[in-house]
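> forwarded from #structure-qc
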């Protein structure tokens, strides 16, 4: 695997990890609120934000897999 590819993969892994950590932080924050009471709107927003971050992390995971598959085929 070329050195440039390794650096690119490292950056993708770091971004994916960042997204996952932020999603987990938002989920934790959401779980600390009263979802059925006065915090329902905030819980809803945090849930959407966490899901969006997880979705983006999943997309990065697919990109990483594609790069690894391409490198294996060489």
């Amino acid at each position: 695997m070329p050195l440039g590819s390794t650096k690119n993969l490292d950056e993708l892994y770091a971004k994916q990890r960042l997204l996952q950590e932020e999603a987990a932080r938002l989920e934790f924050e959401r779980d600390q609120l009263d979802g059925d009471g006065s915090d329902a709107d905030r819980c809803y927003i945090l849930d959407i934000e966490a899901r969006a971050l997880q979705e983006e992390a999943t997309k990065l995971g697919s990109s990483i897999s594609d790069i690894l598959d391409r490198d294996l085929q060489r």
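QC bot note: Helices lie at 3-31, 40-73. The chain has two helices and no strands.
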